[in-house]
Amino acid sequence: MTEQRSETMQADVYDTTGVIVGRVDLDESVWGIEPNIAVMHQALLRQQANARKGTHNTLTRGEVRGGGKKPWRQKGTGRARQGSIRSPQWSGGGVVWGPHPRSYAQDMPRQMRRLAIRSALSAKVRDGRLTVIDGLEAIEPRTKAMKGVIGSLPSARSVLIVTPGHSDVVKRGAGNLEDVETIQAGYLNVRDVLKYERLVVTREAIATIEGLWALSEARRVPSRFKLARLAARADAAAETMVATVGGEA
């Protein structure tokens, strides 16, 4: 008999002094899946592409001001024939095949976007880069206080602090710290999760993240129609195997 995996997992909860004060349940559909590297990569490229403004522009020879007069006559000068001083080979002339305003926006199916963020979060848990903290709102909104809190947690080169909503205390405390950024749980994205080495999530933000990204119960349990299709495929495979064995006999 195969052992069924639990739908929840647990993580240690730290206080602002770096002491473990308890444990919190984590939804396995968000924090415990096998990370899909290809989908994460595609989501990251999409996010970076969508951030491009695409306002770059160059002028063609027809758009550069001036150059309407032929610089010299066609023949008899000993020089190469020229029709305009705004031709691409001239300094100050037009640009050939230069960039022009365009959109770099990429589309991606919703289910793939959701899988990408769940894969990024699960990768943090797998690598031991997730820290759940409690009581962060109770500290002073000062850089010194926030620096002390981060210094008491497991070390990391960079930290992303996730809060359930807007927090003046956390924002002001981390605003001047190098390689420390804050983000609201509703704006969590693949780029920021992958960019920062350690993910520090407040205990209250766990519920917000899971409310946004967790799979519904209908998605976790196969429907009776899907089970019927799987059973039909298994029966067909069995019949094919029996027929093959019977033919060889």
Automatic annotation (TrEMBL):
<keyword id="KW-0694">RNA-binding</keyword>
<feature type="region of interest" description="Disordered">
    <location>
        <begin position="53"/>
        <end position="104"/>
    </location>
</feature>
<dbReference type="GO" id="GO:0019843">
    <property type="term" value="F:rRNA binding"/>
</dbReference>
<comment type="subunit">
    <text>Part of the 50S ribosomal subunit.</text>
</comment>
<dbReference type="GO" id="GO:0005840">
    <property type="term" value="C:ribosome"/>
</dbReference>
<keyword id="KW-0687">Ribonucleoprotein</keyword>
<keyword id="KW-0699">rRNA-binding</keyword>
<comment type="function">
    <text>One of the primary rRNA binding proteins, this protein initially binds near the 5'-end of the 23S rRNA. It is important during the early stages of 50S assembly. It makes multiple contacts with different domains of the 23S rRNA in the assembled 50S subunit and ribosome.</text>
</comment>
<dbReference type="InterPro" id="IPR013005">
    <property type="entry name" value="Ribosomal_uL4-like"/>
</dbReference>
<comment type="function">
    <text>Forms part of the polypeptide exit tunnel.</text>
</comment>
<dbReference type="GO" id="GO:0003735">
    <property type="term" value="F:structural constituent of ribosome"/>
</dbReference>
<protein>
    <recommendedName>
        <fullName>Large ribosomal subunit protein uL4</fullName>
    </recommendedName>
</protein>
<dbReference type="GO" id="GO:1990904">
    <property type="term" value="C:ribonucleoprotein complex"/>
</dbReference>
<dbReference type="InterPro" id="IPR023574">
    <property type="entry name" value="Ribosomal_uL4_dom_sf"/>
</dbReference>
<dbReference type="Pfam" id="PF00573">
    <property type="entry name" value="Ribosomal_L4"/>
</dbReference>
<feature type="compositionally biased region" description="Basic residues">
    <location>
        <begin position="67"/>
        <end position="78"/>
    </location>
</feature>
<dbReference type="InterPro" id="IPR002136">
    <property type="entry name" value="Ribosomal_uL4"/>
</dbReference>
<dbReference type="GO" id="GO:0006412">
    <property type="term" value="P:translation"/>
</dbReference>
<keyword id="KW-0689">Ribosomal protein</keyword>
<comment type="similarity">
    <text>Belongs to the universal ribosomal protein uL4 family.</text>
</comment>
